[in-house]
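Structure tokens please, single chain.
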Amino acid sequence: MIIWPTMNTIFDIVQAAISYNENLDSSCYGKDINYADRGLANWATEEHLKRVNTMMQALTHPNSSVRNEPRLAIGTHCALNVWLVRDWLNPNWWFNQIGIPLLVTGPLLMLGDNVTNFEVQKITEISFRSDWWEHDPGTGANLIWMLQIELYRSLATNNRTGIEQVHRRANSTTAIKMQSIRTQPTECINDENQQGEHLSQAVLNIYTTSATDYREIFLLLDWNPSMESLWNMIFQLNLVNLEVSIG
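Here you go.
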């Protein structure tokens, strides 16, 4: 999941966000979303949270033409809180432990100081369902997503312990490398999957609004010199764009 859109896509994100905001009813539900759906593979209700993420991107991106626009801010927070209050679950464990935690921790990171106490509390609660330390998937995309969720939550709450835990677990199974392009289809994620499964996007892409705080946290970690130099460069740009791949 990409936290902030690129400069090439921000215009489309803004247009979509405006449309989604106008499509909300008086209770901040999407007028065209099926909230009773229980689909195991494609869950229609999840669309609500995907739209919240798009609205949040438009609301918070530094180059957005509607950054901090009052009407969009009201609709975005209202729609986010609809999900947090209802806390929809799906019969498929993947949505509950990975899909939804990933979609709610992104807004937590994007909101920065504009997050409410309730939003922090509820998003943190939902994100802890992605408890890889209790139900470690071993390797593959599920583990990467779970680590990503913990990283987003830890960055947003300045939790050094969580960041260090992600770093240790990632180092035990993954190779972290800086890339600006997608993985090739021939790069497989784990030994069990020889079908060329690949991450279609960089799984860690964080445009930080308080890079100084994050730099302070990461420098506490045991980076080797090349990694430390990498992070210094990243924070100077206020952009984290890492790809995590296994194998």
